[in-house]
Amino acid sequence: QVQLVESGGGLVQPGGSLRLSCAASGSIWSIHTMGWYRQAPGKQRELVAAIPSGTSTNYADSVKGRFTISRDAPRNTVYLQMNSLKPEDTAVYYCNMVLETTMTSGYVEVWGQGTLVTVSS
């Protein structure tokens, strides 16, 4: 059983910053990809940023240059630093990991419970 626990959401003014964290716990053999998705009211869930094992990163065009994803492998933790926040960044942000629970389990996808980010003056 693997759990993802997110933290760091909240209310921030336009132009402000927030840092989201997501820590994985439980039976983990290896983590391939860590990422963040978001879902705004009335919209589909969308990829915000992802970081596979290694150094490459992927970002949605709407957040490039403003958001930075990073991972702390020994702590099984992924971060999302969000700067220059805009009202359109308001959404529930979900942590996502693709991981193996044992050496032979194959990859499984795990989601966090979501954390609300509200950008408003």
Topology:
Layout: E1 2-7, E2 10-12, E3 18-26, E4 30-39, E5 46-52, E6 58-59, E7 67-72, E8 77-82, E9 91-100, E10 107-111, E11 115-119
Parallel strand pairs: 2-11
Antiparallel strand pairs: 1-3, 3-8, 4-5, 4-9, 5-6, 7-8, 9-10, 9-11
Q: Explain this structure to me?
A:
The strands form two sheets. Strands 2, 4, 5, 6, 9, 10 and 11 form a seven-stranded mixed β-sheet that branches. The protein has a four-stranded antiparallel β-sheet with strand order 1-3-8-7, with no helix packed on it. It is 0% helix and 57% strand. With 121 residues, it is mostly beta strands. The termini are far apart. The mean pLDDT is 95. The protein contains no helices and eleven strands.
Percent helix among the residues?
A: under 10%
DSSP summary: helix tally = 0
Question: Unreliable segments (pLDDT under 50, ≥5 consecutive)?
Answer: none
What amount of the residues lies in strands?
A: over 45%
Q: How much is the radius of gyration in Å?
A: 14 Å
| Main sheet properties | 7 strands, mixed
What coarse outline follows from CA principal-axis ratios? Answer: elongated
Order of helices and strands: EEEEEEEEEEE
Backbone structural class: mainly beta
